[in-house]
Design brief:
The chain contains 2 helices and 36 strands. The longest helix is centred in the C-terminal third of the chain and has 10 residues. It has 411 residues and is mainly beta. It is elongated. The N terminus is likely disordered. Strands 1, 32, 33, 34 and 36 form a 5-stranded antiparallel β-sheet that branches.
């Protein structure tokens, strides 16, 4: 027996048309969003995903873990009040989190298995390193920690440092002109950096990167500079933070409220606006990604979650969670002179049948145009080439101009 869903679309739908789900930010079709409002006393420090999908969050007072229901468990407390938080980063093994503040420059380790609230920040035994004016910390694929930090006193140039979290020692790897920017590593170990040279922000910034060989060559004596880096993208607004998804797409958030996606392929990088913050927020400051069973692409089932922090930089602090969503509908209709390609979203293990009709206004019959399609959790496509119908070019013309399509789920 067929179960006809309420949505059996017969129109072309543009994949990147923005749609709103709930009260959070606008997201593209094929995704949905939810949000978690945070009660923050003065300033937000950062957040990260733990390996089990929970979020670890730092404000100016505490470090706490949020579960899926939004329940809050405090794991650490800043002993000194009024600090300016800079980052939170979970260790690669998930056993600890590293929390930075830029008022003094300490980086503290929080043991996630301690079972008690730990004291962190200046003057505590959990400080593992001090890097003045630290901004961001990222681990490379080998588990080494790198920190972005401005130069003390002069504030420029910005420094990219290798930090030994056991001894607290630092090694200057690179200098980049301008203010502090965020770091990100791709799967190959390239170190990406977003420049920050203009204020107010202008679309004159770049995302650059240093290769693993350049990084290794700079360990010890000497360092590289911005002139040694390759440019990944240019002519963009500078990112407050950036993060790769599991498919190699780079997402960046801006203080002006935009979330951008940079996608590379074939030697070309395409930059596009992915979403914007909610109407009551001004900008976004931190972004993190938690992988799923499939890639983070529109209409994919369980394709992971992208979470960013939006704020009015005063009293509003909200985590926006964007997940790929296999919303069942015809998502595109590609036409050429010989056939029509009907694409639609699927869920894994569900079965689908595609139908066509020449004339809906006169009660025309719906005809099956393909065998049953078993969903894989990714979009599927079926081709209608008019096979089995009488008439030559005129019938093809009718196919292109007059046919309607629908997809039903079969039970």
């Amino acid at each position: 027996m067929r179960n006809r869903l309420k949505l059996t679309a017969v129109l072309v739908v543009i994949l990147w048309t923005a749609g709103q789900w709930g009260a959070a930010a606008l997201v593209p079709r094929g995704y949905r969003s939810s949000h978690t409002d945070l009660t923050i006393p003065t300033w937000f420090g950062g957040f990260d995903y733990l390996p089990d999908g929970r979020l670890i969050v730092s404000d100016s007072e505490d470090v706490f873990i949020l579960d899926e229901q939004g329940a809050k468990t405090v794991v650490a407390h800043f002993e000194e009040p009024g600090l300016f938080g800079s980052f939170v980063k979970a260790s690669p093994d998930g056993a600890a989190a590293y929390v930075g503040e830029s008022s003094v420059g300490t980086i503290s380790r929080v043991d996630l298995h301690a079972g008690e609230i730990q004291q962190i920040g200046p003057g505590t035994e959990n400080v593992v390193a001090t890097v003045e004016l630290n901004y961001d910390l990222e681990f490379d694929p080998e588990g080494r920690a790198f920190v972005s930090a401005a130069t003390p006193v002069t504030w420029q140039p910005n420094r990219l440092l290798l930090v030994n979290l056991q001894t607290g020692e630092t090694d200057l790897i690179a200098t980049v002109q301008g203010n502090s920017g965020p770091l990100a590593f791709d799967a190959a170990g390239n170190l990406f950096y977003s420049t920050s040279t203009s204020y107010p922000p202008q679309p004159v910034e770049s995302v650059i990167f240093f290769s693993p060989n350049q990084i290794d060559g700079a360990i010890g004596e000497g360092h590289v500079t911005e002139a040694d880096a390759e440019t990944y993208a240019s002519g963009i607004f500078g990112f407050s933070d950036m993060e790769f998804d599991d498919d190699g797409d780079l997402f960046g958030v801006t203080s002006s409220g935009s979330v951008f996606e940079l996608s590379g392929g074939g030697g070309t990088v395409v930059a596009r606006s992915f979403t914007t913050v909610s109407p009551d927020a001004f900008g976004a400051t931190v972004v993190r990604f938690f992988p799923g069973a499939r890639h983070f692409e529109a209409y994919y089932e369980n394709g992971g979650t992208l979470t960013f922090l939006e704020s009015d930089f005063g009293s509003l602090y909200r985590l926006v969670h964007v997940a790929s969503f296999p919303e069942f509908e015809v998502i595109s209709l590609g036409l050429d002179n010989q056939s029509a390609l009907v694409s639609f979203a699927t869920e894994e293990g569900k079965q689908y049948q595609v139908y066509s009709c020449d004339d809906m206004t006169s009660g025309g019959a719906w005809e099956v145009i393909s065998p049953v399609v078993t969903g894989t959790g990714m979009p599927a496509s079926v081709t209608d080439d008019g096979a089995g119908q009488e008439g030559g070019e005129s019938q093809v013309f009718s196919l292109l101009r007059k046919k309607f399509y629908r997809v039903e789920r079969v039970e």
